[in-house]
Amino acid sequence: MNNATSQLTPETLYESLQEEVGRVIVGNEEVVERLTLALLTGGHVLFEGVPGISKTVTAESFARASGLSFNRIQMTPDILPADITGTTIYREATGEFETQRGPVFANIVVADEINRATPKTQSALLEAMAEQQVTIEADTLELPDPFIVIATQNPLEMEGVYELPEAQRDRFQFKLRLGYPSRENEQAILDRFDNAPGLGPESIEQVIDTDDIIAARNDCQAVFVAEPIKDYILNLAEATRESPDTEVGASPRAAIDLQRAAKASAAVSGRAYVLPDDVKQLAVEVLAHRIVLSTEAELSDLTQSTVIENVLDTVDAPSEELIEDER
Known SUPFAM superfamilies for this protein (predicted)? Predict the structure, then answer.
């Protein structure tokens, strides 16, 4: 594990996580980067993809490499809110009620197949994700810091799934769509597991510690955001609300998440200032899942991602020279 006497920068922290997770996961470098950005900004991540493409393995490998406490919740149709947050139990020996904390009390919580649980159970995570606390009976309990929810979901086309409510989707900083690997990467996966059949998340070692995360988080917060960049983020959010293809546009929370993610992306790239490209490369993953398409857009088979890409094409980004003048 990394020695706490030499704390890592955001750039080297990401490189350490990427290298260790890459011992098990092939070809998901961008996913690990987004998980790192979420970890450094207090965000949450939603994975979507068909079964068997390593969504849960990636999440667990990342958790193990970070050295943070980790719980996995298998979201099924019969799971109850109390199964996530916890409950109170009467102890006959003492004649008192005792609070039993649920699996949400961990630094990294993986909600596996979140859209197989009922909307009522999904909403049990809302308070935790929004306020980093949960209420059990009359007690409000703080969750650990850092705290990040990594949820996986199957595509809506599959049987036995529920669509996440808008309020739930808005709590996720990123939504990442994981597809099938390229033939080259799939060949590498076959070779790797042929040589090491037992390879899995349990093979991952801790490479960073909490002090590294806190120091890197502070570095991200200190990244400079020029006024033209803030205007650009606001213009993108406003354009999603005014688009004829949307019924509901990006929320103010979405704009905040995009700015935070852009700052962390700059820090992970070794820069102390945000560039327009930091915003552009993250906009679809931060904004698309939060918008609601208009009826006409749905009938035209437009996707949320396509709408955000169209917005990026129509909203002018500030020049790097203008950013330089502000620094």
Answer: P-loop containing nucleoside triphosphate hydrolases (SSF52540)
Chain centroid offset of residue 222 CA: 21
The domain limits of the chain are 10-213, 224-326
User: Which ranges of the chain does DSSP label H, i.e. alpha helix?
Assistant: 10-21, 29-41, 55-66, 81-85, 119-122, 126-131, 166-169, 183-195, 210-221, 227-242, 252-268, 276-287, 295-299, 304-314, 320-326
Q: For the whole model, what pTM was predicted?
A: 0.91
Tell me: the pLDDT tens digits for 104-145? 999 999 999 898 888 888 888 888 998 899 988 878 899 999
pLDDT confidence of 326, banded at 50, 70, 90? low
Q: What does each C-alpha distance from 154 to 53, 115, 180, 261 come to in angstroms?
A: 11, 7, 14, 25
Q: What is the pLDDT of residues 164-176, one digit of tens each?
A: 888 889 999 999 9
Average pLDDT value for the chain: 90
What is the amino acid identity at position 128? A
CATH superfamily name and code, 10-213:
P-loop containing nucleotide triphosphate hydrolases (3.40.50.300)
What does CATH list as the number for 224-326?
1.10.8.80
Report yes or no: 243 and 293 within 8 Å, Cβ to Cβ: no
